[in-house]
Amino acid sequence: MSPPSRDSTRSINLPSLVPHTSTYRAHKSRSRSPDTPTTPTQSSYFPSVSSSYDEPWNARVAARSPPQPPPFHRHRTASETLSSLLDEETLFNDNPAVLHNKKPNSTDMADPSSMKRKVVIMGSPSVGKTSLTQQYVSPPTYNASYYPTIEDTLHKTVTHNGIQYECEIIDSAGLEEYSLFPGKYGLGVHGYMLVYSITSRQSFEMIPIIHDKILDYAGLEKVPCVVVGQKVDLDGERAVTTAEGEALAKKLSAGFIESSAKDNKNVVRAFDALLVEMQKEYNPAPEKKKASWWSWGAK
Ligand SMILES: Nc1nc2c(ncn2[C@@H]2O[C@H](COP(=O)(O)OP(=O)(O)OP(=O)(O)O)[C@@H](O)[C@H]2O)c(=O)[nH]1
């Protein structure tokens, strides 16, 4: 006897689905009427145990799998996505730059005499991020022991160029080349301090990698940023020249400074440089009036 071909009429005896249950019919009749939601009520989706177990298994499956997905399963339209993003913004009312491409501005101030600034200190492990931050927030503080950071948030109110800033400073965990970028640092942040150690070439090479990750995550072409070459007291062990640091910062359109948390050298200047970068981005000085064409011959 020859084996059954693909087209053979012989088929496996699967039970056929029986969609025409009372639940299914109720759903169909609802979906025909434009005024009624197509989503069956909870009770019709999940009939009570006693009634559902009277029906065959395939009827119960059919009752739970309506042919049309309920509305909350469909893809959101662009305008729905936008309005949900706008809702998200209210979750971060302290952080005006929450949304991608949305810049904070002077109106983001709760108190008009002070501005909130959220900054993240990022870089490779052990470059001195914590030492730098603590030296800035509560000087003089320097601890020669090393305790890897998970994350720490510090606050400091400073006045710079006549403006008072309430700074929230996030001291982040050291990042390695293949570390996942922590998404929370890509949103709602006003500025970044990217720290390397002048004694570590590897930590220097991490700076453009972290910078790229920030831009990718935030969906921006530029973020206010300062590149800091830390541990400048160890000049004898230098692995990165000042010129290289400057050139990299220029390439990233960032500020640049070398500092030593140990000697408390340029620590305040590093944070001031970041305030300047943020100021340039969010509250640029009004452009000087351009000379109009007729003023050329006016002398
Ligand atoms: N010589 C010198 N050592 C420093 C300086 N800043 C920090 N250190 C030392 O470097 C080590 C690491 O410092 P941390 O401030 O913990 O470095 P970190 O970047 O926060 O490290 P992670 O928490 O791993 O990300 C510690 O032993 C510090 O004492 C500095 O300016 N000069």
TrEMBL record:
<keyword id="KW-0479">Metal-binding</keyword>
<dbReference type="InterPro" id="IPR020849">
    <property type="entry name" value="Small_GTPase_Ras-type"/>
</dbReference>
<keyword id="KW-0636">Prenylation</keyword>
<dbReference type="GO" id="GO:0005525">
    <property type="term" value="F:GTP binding"/>
</dbReference>
<dbReference type="InterPro" id="IPR001806">
    <property type="entry name" value="Small_GTPase"/>
</dbReference>
<keyword id="KW-0342">GTP-binding</keyword>
<dbReference type="GO" id="GO:0046872">
    <property type="term" value="F:metal ion binding"/>
</dbReference>
<keyword id="KW-0460">Magnesium</keyword>
<keyword id="KW-0547">Nucleotide-binding</keyword>
<dbReference type="GO" id="GO:0003924">
    <property type="term" value="F:GTPase activity"/>
</dbReference>
<dbReference type="GO" id="GO:0005886">
    <property type="term" value="C:plasma membrane"/>
</dbReference>
<keyword id="KW-0488">Methylation</keyword>
<keyword id="KW-0449">Lipoprotein</keyword>
<protein>
    <submittedName>
        <fullName>Uncharacterized protein</fullName>
    </submittedName>
</protein>
<dbReference type="InterPro" id="IPR005225">
    <property type="entry name" value="Small_GTP-bd"/>
</dbReference>
<dbReference type="InterPro" id="IPR027417">
    <property type="entry name" value="P-loop_NTPase"/>
</dbReference>
<comment type="similarity">
    <text>Belongs to the small GTPase superfamily. Rheb family.</text>
</comment>
<dbReference type="GO" id="GO:0007165">
    <property type="term" value="P:signal transduction"/>
</dbReference>
<feature type="region of interest" description="Disordered">
    <location>
        <begin position="1"/>
        <end position="51"/>
    </location>
</feature>
<keyword id="KW-0378">Hydrolase</keyword>
<feature type="compositionally biased region" description="Polar residues">
    <location>
        <begin position="10"/>
        <end position="24"/>
    </location>
</feature>
<dbReference type="Pfam" id="PF00071">
    <property type="entry name" value="Ras"/>
</dbReference>
<feature type="compositionally biased region" description="Low complexity">
    <location>
        <begin position="34"/>
        <end position="51"/>
    </location>
</feature>
<keyword id="KW-0472">Membrane</keyword>
